[in-house]
């Protein structure tokens, strides 16, 4: 019975996490679309909605992908790195 409760808790946590991430991604996408369309308007351009959505999607995907890089790939360097210059903190 304990294993069923453990599985149910894990499943519930996964569903809640997926819903929260989906909500945050939707909000970020909407804000990015607003910024792109406002910036284009300020620059004197009138892009079609297709290009605004495409640009927002590319920017959001780039932000999501770069957020997953370990510090050594994103340019953050400090003095605690090993002598060989390679420290992979991804799988710790």
TrEMBL record:
It comes from Natrialba hulunbeirensis JCM 10989. The keyword Transmembrane helix applies. Residues 68-92 are annotated as: Disordered. The chain crosses the membrane at residues 12-36, 48-69. Keywords: Membrane, Transmembrane, Transmembrane helix. It comes from the Archaea. This is Uncharacterized protein.
